[in-house]
Amino acid sequence: MSFFAGLSKNNQKCIKTDTPFNLSLSDCLACSGCVTTDEAGALSADISFVRDSAPQTSFVLSPQSKVNIFNIYGKGNMSYREFEGALSSFLRAKLNVRRIVDTSSMRRKIYKEIYKEYLATDHLVISACPGVVAYVERTAPHLIDYLSRVKSPQQMAFSLVKGDRTVSVMPCQDKKLESGRDGVKFDHVLTTREFRRVLDELEFELFLKANSWNHHEIEDMEVTQWNIGTSSGGYAEFILSKHRSVKKIKDRNGIREYMVDDGGIVSQITGLENSINYFKISKTKGPKYKMAEVFLCKNSCIGGPGQERINSVEVDSAEYNIYGKEQPEIYYSDPGLEEKRTFRPVSVKRIDFKVDW
User: Fold this and answer.
1) What backbone phi and psi angles, to 5 degrees, belong to 313?
2) What does each C-alpha distance from 101 to 63, 135, 259 come to in angstroms?
3) Are 305 and 294 in contact (CB under 8 A)?
4) Radius of gyration, CA atoms only, the chain
5) 245: which DSSP letter?
6) Which segments constitute the Iron hydrogenase large subunit C-terminal domain (predicted)?
7) Which of 22-31, 46-55, 165-174, 294-303 has the least mean pLDDT?
8) What is the mean pLDDT of the chain?
9) Are the beta carbons of 290 and 246 closer than 8 angstroms?
């Protein structure tokens, strides 16, 4: 399921116009006012590529997806680190794999670039959530100038695998919307659920039972790295760590606010309703925060709608925080890592429609 799933042919306008207002993800799934025809086509999936093992292939894997896959196949039979090695060995055994990149290996570079932006502006809106970007471009263009230009982990990782047949595995279907812009074009972007179909077709479970993988065949970039307490990347946590004094002033219903030593406020906003209310209020009252990290899903990426719900989101979040640990720093020199994102207002056809809420 996607934030933009369940699309009809005509783009519709949300009729809940009060500010602030209540809006659930289910409400938005009945509305197509945020998606263009081209983007709607990009949300489809084709896993037939697994039948052709000849092309040189590289994978980009989100750590949130890997935790989810671990809970499906490996939990109870091996450690998470052993599972990461088994998954890498399996993909190499079945396909002509050149490189596997865990997107968490991009974090150090991303933190460095975001901190530069933070120091250079009075207001910064950060999100690796394509749903946030799509919503801002279509309905909150007043925030475009404040959006971070640093590429998302998926976009940045593409710089290390381009030229191969590229497959990205993400916890949310909307990550497919990042492919095709800013010089990023994956051959396949799969949700965790779709990737599970790939693993089943290639008989991953039998591979694990055979216990035949090389436990040492894994590179630093394939390992989940440096999780600092969030299921979405740790942008706000990293910025807060740069301040001498931090005071939490709000922690309620998916909104956290911290006052830092210079009097600015750093916030984390999660959940569809919270995000849209922030966008609407900022239109009349300004962006408010020194920095806002915004994600549409209530529990950020670990709770993405492309995940298999094996455990509760709370259990997955707790496990994710355990599995991530600091690894030796990886330095990349690829010039693609320095490229920035671009944003633009997007006009979509809108018509009113009547719904009984």
Assistant:
1) -60, -35
2) 10, 28, 35
3) no
4) 20
5) -
6) 61-305
7) 22-31
8) 81
9) no
